[in-house]
Write a structure and sequence with these properties.
By secondary structure, the chain is an alpha+beta fold. The chain is built from 11 helices and 19 strands. Helix content is about 30%, strand content about 20%.
Length: about 350
Amino acid sequence: MTRRAALTGPNVWLGRDMVSSRRWIRDLPAGAAAEIDAALQAVRRRGLAWHEIRREDFPLPTLRPLFDDIADELENGCGMVKLRGLPVAAYDEDALRQIYFGIGSHVGTPVFQNRRGELMRAIRDEGAGVGQRYGQIEGQGDGRPFLSSYARTLTNGQLRFHTDRTDVVALLCVRQAKSGGVSKICSSTAVHNAFLARRPDLLDVLFEDFWRSRLGEESDKAETVYRLPIFGLRDGRFTSHYSLTYIEAAELVPGVPKLTTGQREAIDMLMALSEELCFEMTLEPGDLQLLNSHVTYHGRTAFEDDKASGHDRLLLRLWLTMPNNRALPQGHEVLWGNIAAGARRGGIGQTVM
């Protein structure tokens, strides 16, 4: 068994302590709404589509200290921020995309979320047929297709704890559901420490390679697989990349080794600890949630929409690579590309269609 030490720092937290804390909450300052609207009108006069906007196209000079504070909290603080007060009710969806992409470009640099060039995803229930549109594996034992992670995001079902393939995942709440759709967040560094205290033998397992499939955002086929540990360390800085869906999809590929008994036990314990150590965050319209994927896991509860009353859940998602991001361990190039500190990385490589 490898000699390991507990992780320390502000990104090691327990969910019960965050419920009453404000360390992760920021409010849009007075006057910011007018500054945001002025930037929006400027890009509209120029005829810029939302995906054409760059930081210099969307000037927000008085908000620079806020954006710097958010970036620092995400990388060197608790790893999550909720920014409250964005004026979503005042704009239609097209304008919100322009505003959101402009703000996102000040916090970090948006990266692609699938192989077809998606830079912003509308997270909503798209109903039946999502697997056929976004990836599934047919012929499973229960008669139902195995849905890719991409497809699951666009249902009203529960999402298990996972990370996204980006330094920071940002979710802007435009509308909430009639019920459910609650965000669940936990510190993956706290999960690491719980393993160390309770089952150090299984902690070692999580630093070993797990097979993953690229089905969904990256590939139409589950057979495109790679190996990567769930936990990694470099220069004392932690990272975890984890989605059980990608691991399960890889297990369905002929020739890919099945999970060992130890790997299955470690995953079961990881999921149980994530639930034990998490807290729930209800996003209201105008809330922007930002999470550092290296030190947090996130999920959501199932939800129910009521479109007639205006309660049909809509979140807009950005993936951001951050200028102050950490160096990643050797071997993580298979997922991240460039593993140097401060490098532009993450997102999905593009396929010419």
